[in-house]
Design goal:
The chain is α/β, with parallel strands linked by helices. The protein contains 7 helices and 10 strands. The relative contact order is 0.15.
Length: 221
């Protein structure tokens, strides 16, 4: 593990996210992300019905998947985020399709081996996680996916305007406005391919800044 990692600072990010979610009930809006729209198409093409969203935040994408008939298990470490998802799913009558729970992705995923068809996460990999923790998470996703299952995730990349700006927190982690982001190069993504085939790696932009991201689609082999 890199000696310059400020692990105590990284661990405090959960409190920062919790505070922001409490003060801003729809922090990222209510419409599904562009990444989720793409992912739904991939899951439907493969006739997937049972999927997981990791790092679901306040649930705009989980709600979108459930509205489109997928059974989704939604995990996030924010208590207020999960509460918001539960409230929305109840209001929309989606409780039979969406199960939201508090969970820290640094732990062993609460699913059996080879039990999940698709896994989705939007900017989870670029949260305040060390690369070792990201590798462990990726290995866990591989464990729970069925053969031929998809892992679709997005990460802010090293072309993003915030990369190497703000406070350096070790590795490729930088803090700006209180949020710590882990930035990814193509080479770093390729280090996560053990047991997977890379089907697609595309660039896209999100927000008015804009954030520059990679959208990655991997298949378990």
């Amino acid at each position: 593990m890199s000696k310059n990692l400020e692990l105590e600072v990284l661990d405090k990010q959960s409190l920062h996210w919790e505070k922001n979610f409490l003060n801003r009930p729809d922090m990222f809006g209510t419409d599904a992300s562009v990444a989720a729209v793409y992912t739904l198409d991939q899951f439907k093409k493969n006739n997937f019905k049972n999927i997981v969203e990791l790092g679901s935040g306040q649930g705009r994408d989980s709600i979108f998947f459930a509205k489109n008939g997928l059974n989704i298990q939604s995990l996030d470490y924010s208590q207020s985020g999960i509460k918001r998802i539960q409230e929305k799913s109840t209001q929309l009558g989606l409780g039979n399709l969406l199960d939201a729970k508090i969970f820290d992705v640094r732990e062993r995923l609460p699913f059996d081996d080879n039990s999940i068809e698709g896994c989705y996460s939007h900017m989870l990999y670029c949260m305040a996680l060390t690369f070792e923790e990201i590798e462990n998470l990726n290995n866990e996703i591989h464990r729970v996916l069925k053969q031929g299952g998809l892992n679709v995730f997005t990460v802010r990349n090293t072309e993003d305007g915030d990369y190497q700006n703000g406070i350096h927190r070790g590795e490729d982690l930088y803090e700006s406005n209180g949020f710590i982001v882990h930035f990814f190069s193509k080479e770093k993504i390729k280090k996560l391919l053990r047991g997977f085939e890379l089907l697609d790696m595309s660039t896209f932009e999100e927000g008015s800044f804009p954030r520059r991201l990679y959208r990655v689609t991997m298949m378990k082999i």
